[in-house]
Amino acid sequence: MSTRRTITVLGLGTVGSQLAADLAAAGADVVAFDPGLSDAPEGVRLVADVADAVDGTDLVISATAPAEAPAALAQVLPHLAPGSVYADVSTGSPKLKRGLAITAENNDLAFVGVAILSLRSGISLGAPMLASGAGVETFVSIMAEHGSEVEAVGDDAGTAASRKVLRSIMVRGIAALAAESLAASIQSGDAEWLWENLSAELAAADENWLSQVFDAFGPYAAQRRGEAEVIPLYLADLSVAPVMSEALVEVTRAISSAGLPRRPEVSG
Questions:
Q1: According to the CATH classification, is domain 6-157 in 3.30.70.1290?
Q2: Predicted TM-score of the model (pTM)
Q3: From CA 117, how far away is CA 244, in angstroms rounded?
Q4: Cβ atoms of residues 33 and 27 within 8 Å
Q5: Most C-beta atoms within 10 A of its C-beta, which of 57, 168, 178, 213?
Q6: Which residue numbers in the chain have pLDDT < 70?
Q7: Are strands 150-152 and 44-47 parallel, antiparallel or unpaired?
Q8: Is 241 left (phi over 0), alpha (psi -120 to 50) or beta?
Q9: Predicted local distance difference test score (pLDDT) of residue 225
Q10: For residue 161, how many other CB atoms are within 10 A of its CB?
Q11: 60: Cβ–Cβ under 8 A, 6 or more apart, which residues?
């Protein structure tokens, strides 16, 4: 890195604080704006005026809650030079990101929608990230200077968020199913066995596991739908709300009627 970058972080919640601290530790001059706070992470300069926060900045990273993202952008618009790169890392929807991009581009800013994929790595510069939008090349370059590998996924500002949402259906769904299954196993006295069994199943998984489990679900739905229908009944007997299990029954019925969606072919 030939010159020290100035990076502005808007919002010092969980995500903003960690990114700001990591960027500062990686050598950036990090300036933060969060009117609700009086303290900032080590190495981060917290300022009271939003104009001061973005003065001379190389990159603005907005880390607010999705509901606050439009207001955060509107607040800095009068103070940013044309061509400035504005990246939103909130967990907002693809529609929100595209709307922010329109506002930014109408004011001569290069918008970037960023999705942090933080299942196991936590929220840090080391977490996998997707980015899309008009300013994606500059964003990826600046982040790479500070040790963060960001995958550019196109010029559409909503693409990164879309891919995160699609991934979360399964990733967070697995966690929700595990929670429901564990709650039931605690009631039945089988928690230790269940956790060891499921952990062993996942530990033995290879790159073909997802395809194999997916392909097997079609015949299961068609031939053994009754097995799925027993699950929420048993959970009710255990006084466990069968929220995910009832959804499983509905999906099983739908696939029994319509079949599985066509999956991509993968090697291996």
A1: no
A2: 0.90
A3: 23
A4: no
A5: 57
A6: 1-2, 119-122, 267-268
A7: unpaired
A8: beta
A9: 85
A10: 26
A11: 7, 8, 10, 54, 76, 80, 84, 85, 86, 87
